[in-house]
Amino acid sequence: YKNVSTLIKAINLMPDYTLILLGRIRPRTRAALEKIITNPKQVVFKNGVTDQEYHEELSRAAALVNASKFEGFGLPLVEAQAAGVPVVCSDIPVFHEVCAGESALFFNPSNPKELVARVGELPEKHTALIAAGKRNAARFTWQQSAQDLYDIITQYIKT
Questions:
Q1: Which of 42, 88, 92, 111 has its CA 20 to 30 Å from the CA of residue 1?
Q2: What is the pTM of this model?
Q3: Could you give phi then psi for residue 69, rounded to 5 degrees?
Q4: Are 134 and 103 in contact (CB under 8 A)?
């Protein structure tokens, strides 16, 4: 469901970029993905990272790119925006909810060429994406999350 194959197909079309995959990956899945990589030097498999390593990688990233077809929320998108990293993500409803307004660039998760086109927009839109992303990420605080949960529970108890 993370749709890493679309990311790899896209990086194959972008020789000036490196794709760094941070999540854990099963050996069989990795082997299948390696078969579609054109330039192995462009794809780095971290196979899981600590929180510190995650934040270090994020701080060096040109963008956080997520090609998921299904998600429950999308916390990495908000984390990236809060850190001032542009977001390029799947055009799925939950990501539009999480990355409201013009705070991210969206692409069809089944279309690697569309992802390449969105990445191509980054230089022109970089400053605006960072500003909009930071404003968007500010909507998500632990205090607000606790209040939202409290409101839902209170509403449920009343009915």
A1: 42
A2: 0.90
A3: -95, -20
A4: no
Pair 107, 85: CB distance under 8 Å: no
CB-count burial class (<10 Å; 0-12, 13-18, 19+) for 149: exposed
**Joined tokens for residue 60:** 């060096």
- pLDDT tens digits, residue range 108-157? 999 999 999 999 999 999 999 999 999 999 999 888 888 888 989 998 88
Say how far apart CA 61 and CA 45 lie, in whole Å: 15
Max Cα–Cα distance, the chain, nearest Å? 59
Sign of CA pseudo-dihedral 118, 94, 48, 27:
negative
Instruction: State whether the Cα torsion 20-105-142-93 is positive or negative.
Output: negative
Name which of 101, 107, 110 is nearest 129 in CA terms.
Answer: 101
Q: Tokens 């009343």 correspond to what residue? A: 158
DSSP 110: T
> Token match 């299948």: residue?
32
Q: What are the tokens at 65?
A: 């790119």
